[in-house]
Write a structure and sequence with these properties.
Chain lengths: 348, 348
DNA sequence: CTGAAAGCGCTTACAG
DNA sequence: CTGAAAGCGCTTACAG
């Protein structure tokens, strides 16, 4: 059964394709009578505009692309949900690709999306990403690009982020306020901006509180598929290397949960012997034992904001208005749970 | 900057559009010299075929649609990953929609995808879905449709599932083998097929072991956003209603984790007082305390198989071959952990 | 109020 | 080996 076209309707009603097209789109210069006839027939024939033809004519696909490092991931799947829900409201569909934290794949996927002629792209960078040519390509093609979470500061486009440095500072300050004196940090890979910023926030909090920064207390965890294992491994290593550590600020909840598992196995008491603060507030963190103190990162809202900004820029470009890049910084908060002690009162 | 077209290349080289098109697609009837020239220029101009025009001509979009009930969900996000990874290999992109377990939304989304003219659709039904007209519409438009996990038995299309009944039977049998005599069941909503099948498996295991089936021991949990809370609530209720229960088989891990949280709070010992078996093997289940015995459901593989079958049917239709619907049943296994006791040996 | 016509950028059957 | 031409199904500026 071939799909119904405008010309099928035109033929049946003995009018022109032009008029059918205009009637369906409620142009003011079509008589109400004709409109009614056309619309009725379109309905009974179950007419559906051929999106391929519409796209070709309008040069728009009402589709956007999303590239994320990992899908099976509480934070990122929340972002996906935020983007999709917002896109749907505006009549946009979302094509999702997973870079697997690989720079090479990410480049290929950007290319795929450009070829597909999506109306815009939202991306969170792979840990691997060392070069931003592929991103600048998108911009030079005048295609809206929004980065979120793992961004590249040097790329000129809008960004949706949190204040990673401040959030990390506050998390570390909390450890200090609860009496920790020797605080380690499990950081993420070296390249991602947020991993750098969280590290800097940790360091600054120490220094501001007169605690010497000791690079030996900083462990790197590759936050990919094996985050949990990395957390376990590094927790054990930390204990061997530095048995005087009494607190750890950890880059990601999943790594923190690995550390907790290791400490539970070894009989190390949390928070009495070692306090732990994570980052992201995965759902899991509220149900493990002990529950994890962590930074709440609003994934769903970040997704929503990312799409909203993208939509704004798509419209601006379409109307030939100047495009303004924005840096949208969302609020985070520290969720205090069992993995840290109560803050001491009246500290100076 | 306008995108480069075939005619731009043709003009520059003073040859026809036809020849350019054929050269780029390596038609045998173009001279090697011309091919080389065309390909080189295409490369330097960074030519990208206009997918809208290609789609219009070929009537294919190399894009498929995926509708899932929830995205922030370990099982479903694993399926997404499986589908996307497989689709990418075959050059297909995936548009993802979330039905939020709503029948109305699901209907709208099917319509959206048909309008978008995706090459095929993969779906797991919403709990709400009572009627299958929208699905039969897809089929009558001769568009490939694959259902997975939450399927409708009556709809004639390929399906990727597990043997829910058998898996539930085995899970319940395990509770019996570990000495449980009075076993409750937290089931899912009434409509979904897998929720029904898991219930039937539970029931059959009881009967086969000479344990009377008691409908009062079956609690319904709406497995949506609030699964965890539902698990908590029902666990408390169960304890009030029937303090002699010594085992529970629970429809979904997240609900089971809620139940565990409630029992931990109340000081009810797991598995000594009550044993618990979940379903799905979420990552979380391996890190909570006690770790959860559960049925491993291969989400990633289900996604891969679903796409493979879809791809097969797309090809069959394209080549006017008869389309054969298949029911692909993937293996599950019971993962025994701390929430159940060791099986008694030499039982008859 | 209606419609003929051009054109979006491709692909492909056909002629030479 | 090359190319003119038709056509995929729309939209829209323009003429009447």
């Amino acid at each position: 059964m071939k799909p119904v076209t405008l010309s099928d309707i035109a033929e049946r009603l003995n009018i022109s394709i032009t008029t059918v097209s205009k009637a369906l789109k409620d142009y003011p210069d079509v008589s109400p009578k004709t409109k009614a006839l056309v619309k009725e027939l379109a309905l009974t024939l179950n007419y559906r505009p051929n999106s391929f033809a519409v796209n070709l004519r309008t040069k728009e696909s009402k589709t956007i692309g999303l590239i994320i490092p990992v899908i099976v991931h509480h934070f990122f799947s929340s972002v996906i949900k935020g983007i999709i829900s917002q896109a749907e409201k505006k009549g946009y569909l979302v094509i999702i690709l997973q870079s697997n934290e690989s720079y090479e794949l990410e480049k290929k996927q950007i290319d795929l999306l450009i070829n597909q002629r999506v109306d815009g792209i939202i991306i969170s960078l792979a840990n691997d990403t060392v070069d931003f040519k592929h991103l600048n390509d998108v911009i030079s093609l005048d295609k809206p690009l929004i980065m979120f979470d793992k961004i590249a500061k040097l790329v000129k486009c809008s960004k949706v982020i949190i204040n990673d440095r401040q959030a990390a500072y506050d998390a570390t300050q909390h450890l200090i306020n609860t009496g920790c004196k020797r605080i380690a940090h499990f950081r993420g890979s070296l390249l991602p901006q947020n991993s750098i910023d969280r590290f800097l926030g940790y360091k600054k909090a120490l220094v501001d509180n007169g605690i010497p920064y000791d690079p030996n207390l900083v462990y790197i965890c590759e936050c990919d598929d094996k985050s949990f294992e990395e957390g376990k491994k590094n927790a054990i290593k930390l204990l061997e290397d530095h048995d005087d550590v009494d607190g750890i600020f950890i880059n990601t909840d999943l790594v923190a949960i690995g550390a907790i598992a290791a400490f539970n196995d070894l009989g190390v008491k949390i928070p009495e012997t070692i306090s732990i603060v994570g980052f992201s507030n995965w759902f899991m963190s509220s149900v493990i034992s002990p529950t994890l103190t962590t930074v709440d990162q609003p994934g769903f809202e970040m997704g929503k904001e990312a799409f909203k900004q993208l939509f704004k820029e798509i419209r601006q470009r379409k109307n030939n208005l100047p495009v303004t890049y924005e840096e949208i910084v969302l609020k985070t908060s520290l969720v205090k749970r069992e993995s840290t002690k109560t803050e001491l009162t009246n500290r100076v």
